[in-house]
Amino acid sequence: MDAHFTEPLTLADVAQVAGYSPFHFAREFSRAFGTSPIAYLATRRVERAKDLLRAANLTVTEVCHAVGFTSLGTFSARFTAMVGVTPTAYRTEHVRRGGPPPVPGCFALAWGQPQPRPTTSPEGDDGAGTPAGTTARSEKHSDTVRP
Q1: Contacts of 11 (CB under 8 A, 6+ apart)
Q2: Distance CA 147, CA 144 (A)
Q3: Has the keyword Transcription regulation been applied to this entry (predicted)?
Q4: Domain that holds residue 64
């Protein structure tokens, strides 16, 4: 759940990954963590939203969607219930206190996305038809040093 909290997760999905029925998973999760899986997920999303509201130049709606909520109303209600102020008031208070300058929203959104891992083919080339240990002709004259 922690690694995928920004994705649309259901209790059935998470329980299936764990190998339990949804009801058994919910009972065991609550016993282990002291809260329901849905409340835990909402808490993780609100924690991340607080970070984004303090540090990124994103609208409240963009933050809502970036952390995995699909409804701005639900996001605002959960945020207000957990934090005690609306998302907008939270951001305004942080700015008033002189927090760090906001990170551009496009960077904040890209940074939170998983990046593809480089792959190599089993034949020993780099996957682009260039044998391992060599570079394509256009790369030979590049100023960039490659390992």
Answers
A1: 22, 25, 26, 37, 38
A2: 10
A3: yes
A4: 11-111
**Dist. CA 126–CA 55, nearest whole Å:** 38
In a domain, 48, yes or no: yes
- DSSP-derived secondary structure for 40-54: HHHHHHHHHHHHHHH
Return left, alpha or beta for 127; rule: phi > 0 is left, psi -120 to 50 is alpha, else beta.
left
Our count of domains for the chain comes to 1
Phi, psi angles (nearest 5°) of residue 104? -55, 135
- In this predicted model, what pLDDT tens digit does every residue of 65-83 receive, in sequence order? 999 998 999 999 999 999 9
Residue 79 placed within a domain: yes
pLDDT in tens, 30-77: 999 999 998 999 999 999 999 999 888 889 999 999 999 989 999 999
Residue 137: both structure tokens together: 């002709």
